[in-house]
């Protein structure tokens, strides 16, 4: 199976940049004390993992913020330095938007100071259910306080402020990261010039109670123990099966079929990659993030948006199908928002946000140039 893991990693990397000029990337940590959540509960300490690329201008107004998808990390561009990788990643790993972020790219690090932030609740360095509760000295587990997309954005705002940023040119992100881009547009309307939500929506289009269904699936694992599995072997085997289903709904079969012709070998590669991911991602964190995202809906707040909006969807995306676009665009226009829509033609569904960036990043490049043009 290790052979298949190497194979799928190599194949997926082949869809990414051949080389990156951001070759000494380091994951960093920012800590907030007594962070109050929308629920009214307070986390004694919140750590947010992040990366930066490029340099901040003296006036602090050339920054961009990147949001990651549901199961991804904040490693959006470049290669980690030997000692710069967070838990779950390693030196040499390439960022998932490396063709979008970098010198001369759509999000140009020669002009922009780019911050890629891990989300509260994610498993790549930020405070999450596997983190130790300072009150007990044990992992929070299933008792991690419920949080919202607005909480995620508020923690990021504290991070952005701590770095000396006075204004964001752009907030961009794919999938669940696009939720956060929309959230920024309504939460801090005067702080953001533009948002680029990619393969996403300003609300959760998924059926309700997905977190309950996910928990039920995880509970089939003999080690589940009500979510308290940290001392009895974990639930990686069951989590890997769930990951396979997620990847298949995203379009991984279409992505790999031209590279791995044999269906059995293709499935083995997908399973191997899922097992590798499941060893680094916390199952309670997967539930907590889903719970946060499925309550997301900012459509009633469109009137607050002052940022320009670039909305991008894919023809074959089953997660965020283009059928949702007309109502979203109509509501944005009715609220007086400067919004434009791009639909790309792709056969690989949701995964085109990372593996076919050439189909939409030129539009993003023009959008960013417009945001940065003198007024």
Overview of this protein structure:
- This protein is 33% helix and 17% strand.
- The chain has helices spanning 2-14, 149-162, 176-187, 210-218, 236-250, 252-256, 263-278, 283-294, 325-334, 352-355, 361-372, and strands spanning 28-36, 42-53, 63-67, 101-102, 107-108, 113-117, 168-174, 192-198, 308-314, 339-344.
- A hairpin with a 5-residue loop joins strand 1 and strand 2 (42-53).
- The strands form two sheets. An eight-stranded mixed sheet has the order 1-2-6-3-7-8-9-10, sandwiched between helices.
- The chain is α/β, with parallel strands linked by helices and 375 residues long.
- The chain has two domains: 22-208 and 290-372, Rossmann fold (3-Layer(aba) Sandwich), CATH 3.40.50; 210-281, no CATH class.
Outline:
By secondary structure, this protein is α/β, with parallel strands linked by helices.
Task: Report the total helices.
Answer: 11
- CATH-defined architecture of the largest domain: 3-Layer(aba) Sandwich
Question: End-to-end distance, in Å?
Answer: 56 Å
Computed structural class: alpha/beta
Coarse shape = globular
Helix percent band: 25-40%
* Rg from alpha-carbon coordinates: 20 Å
CATH topology of the largest domain: Rossmann fold
Beta-strand share of residues: 15-25%
Instruction: Give the number of domains.
Output: 2
State the CATH superfamily name of the largest domain. Answer: Alpha/Beta hydrolase fold, catalytic domain
Task: Count the beta strands.
Answer: 10
Order of helices and strands: HEEEEEEHEHEHHHHHEHEHH
Strand order of the biggest β-sheet: 1-2-6-3-7-8-9-10
For the report, how would you describe the main beta sheet?
Answer: 8 strands, mixed
CATH class categorisation of the largest domain: Alpha Beta
């Amino acid at each position: 199976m290790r052979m298949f893991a190497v194979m799928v990693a190599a194949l997926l990397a082949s869809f990414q940049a051949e080389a990156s000029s951001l070759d000494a990337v380091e994951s960093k940590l920012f800590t907030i004390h007594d962070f109050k959540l929308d629920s009214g509960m307070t986390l004694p300490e919140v750590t947010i993992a992040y990366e930066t690329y490029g340099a901040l201008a003296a006036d602090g107004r050339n920054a961009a913020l990147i949001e990651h998808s549901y199961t991804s990390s904040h490693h959006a561009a470049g290669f980690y330095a030997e000692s710069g990788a967070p838990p779950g990643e390693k030196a040499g790993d390439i960022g998932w938007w490396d063709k979008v972020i970098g010198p001369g790219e759509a999000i140009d690090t020669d002009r922009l100071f780019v911050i890629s932030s891990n989300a509260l609740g994610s498993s790549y360095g930020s405070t999450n259910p596997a983190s130790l509760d300072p009150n007990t000295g044990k992992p929070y587990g299933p008792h991690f306080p419920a949080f919202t997309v607005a909480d995620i954005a508020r923690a990021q705002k504290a991070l952005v402020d701590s770095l000396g940023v006075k204004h964001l040119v752009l907030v961009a992100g794919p999938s669940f990261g696009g939720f956060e881009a929309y959230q920024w547009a309504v939460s801090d309307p005067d702080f953001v010039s533009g948002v680029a939500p990619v393969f996403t929506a300003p609300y959760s289009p998924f059926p309700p109670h997905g977190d309950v269904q996910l928990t039920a699936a995880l509970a089939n694992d003999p080690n589940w123990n009500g979510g308290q599995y940290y001392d009895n072997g974990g639930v990686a085997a069951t989590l890997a099966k769930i990951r396979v289903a997620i990847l298949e709904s995203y379009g991984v079969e279409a992505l790999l079929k031209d590279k791995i012709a044999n269906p059995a070998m293709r499935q083995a590669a997908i399973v191997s990659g899922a097992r590798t991911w499941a060893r680094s991602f916390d199952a309670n964190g997967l539930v907590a993030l889903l719970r946060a995202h499925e309550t997301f809906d900012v459509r009633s707040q469109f009137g607050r948006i002052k940022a320009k909006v670039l909305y991008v969807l894919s023809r074959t995306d089953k997660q965020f199908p283009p059928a949702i676009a007309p109502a979203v665009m109509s509501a944005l226009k009715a609220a007086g928002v400067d919004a434009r829509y791009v639909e790309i033609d792709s056969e690989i569904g949701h995964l085109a946000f990372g593996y076919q960036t050439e189909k939409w990043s030129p539009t993003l490049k023009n959008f960013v140039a417009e945001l940065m043009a003198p007024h």
